[in-house]
Amino acid sequence: xxxxxxxxxxxxxxxxxxxxxxxxxxxxxxxxxxxxxxxxxxxxxxxxxxxxxxxxxxxxxxxxxxxxxxxxxxxxxxxxxxxxxxxxxxxxxxxxxxxxxxxxxxxxxxxxxxxxxxxxxxxxxxxxxxxxxxxxxxxxxxxxxxxxxxxxxxxxxxxxxxxxxxxxxxxxxxxxxxxxxxxxxxxxxxxxxxxxxxxxxxxxxxxxxxxxxxxxxxxxxxxxxxxxxxxxxxxxxxxxxxxxxxxxxxxxxxxxxxxxxxxxxxxxxxxxxxxxxxxxxxxxxxxxxxxxxxxxxxxxxxxxxxxxxxxxxxxxxxxxxxxxxxxxxxxxxxxxxxxxxxxxxxxxxxxxxxxxxxxxxxxxxxxxxxxxxxxxxxxxxxxxxxxxxxxxxxxxxxxxxxxxxxxxxxxxxxxxxxxxxxxxxxxxxxxxxxxxxxxxxxxxxxxxxxxxxxxxxxxxxxxxxxxxxxxxxxxxxxxxxxxxxxxxxxxxxxxxxxxxxxxxxxxxxxxxxxxxxxxxxxxxxxxxxxxxxxxxxxxxxxxxxxxxxxxxxxxx
Length: 556
Hints:
By secondary structure, this protein is an alpha+beta fold.
């Protein structure tokens, strides 16, 4: 009995101890502490900070990225990448400064290419924290300054530019009509105004022995024969576009399916130039001149006054009449329209039409100063350069004056403002410089625009500077050499310089346009010899007509 009591007591003690142990609380282990994230502080590319976009970068830039804490070197390869806009990866070396809180990248890049440096949040700190936000830095590399072609003399270069660009009109001329295709992808669509430019370019080519006289004459006979027998005309005026095989109108727009008086003027400028060039008394050239006169005398310039108003209208449609209702008023590319209308011996206009319609009684005057140059006429900062080219392929501006301007002064001022704007580069466009300038109408990436200092999208068109050679010979020759020697691997092709390029967001056109290629040949030749100016201004009707409008000068 005694032992039972002892055993029972022991059991009670054991149970009490067990209950006491089971009720005791054990604390949970502390959660692990996550490494602190870190942040980006600053960037410098070649010692300069300009945010996250850099242009004109060299082939091996030094990119310094500073962070709030040292980075984990082992994480860099998996979190930092440099790639072009076409997806090509660029190799880089990585070094470290400031106790590893500054990452220094030195990539190897190709010229005239856009790259993005991407830093993801996988970049870690030395304490294993992650970068708070991903980063992207855009780099656009500069032009490779090495020459792409062997150096030749200036005369040889001008010969080459004329000869190669002429191929657009001669080799690539439409096989049926001989007319100029609108662009290198236009198929059967030919342009009347661009064909006028092409005719003048062919004359220059014959004169420089790039084409034989016989072959040039045959081409001109084909062109003029097609225009006389197949091409649709409306009151003697041609449409903007034609089918080069059939001569039928190709509408430029829904309402622009008939006459285009401005395009007709460019065509007539070329035809009159050719008429003056093919001056032999032989039967073939005599007939050619007769056929050109049929076209020239058939244009009813005065009919485009739309009811005898003192202004000319740009368009007329056979089914919609003057629905577009666009007056041809200055200052722009259309001075040649009024010069030729006044020169017509069959459908002439009076001086009042010129003064009131074109000059708007003097309202086309400017007189303001831009980039140190006073501009006599036109919109602020001059507008696109083709204003100084298209009408002046034939009209010689040297010493030419009327009541409104000295046209040599006007065109030189326009070109110098365009040049000075690009040198000043107020919008920080890539590549603009004394070597690389020229804003005019051209293709742009995904479209077409009339570039100018007031509509600057970063696109340079070689025709703008090259066709300004008579006005800015030093600046234009400098640009021509840059286009050929420095950019030639991307810009020079089968028919001379491609239409345009952009060095800010690197892009090079693969297109050729008749209205851009033509002025290159013509104005290079006018710069060298004055050939096309001399021929056009020798037409007796032109002398009489321009004098009737109040023009004066050594070539009248």
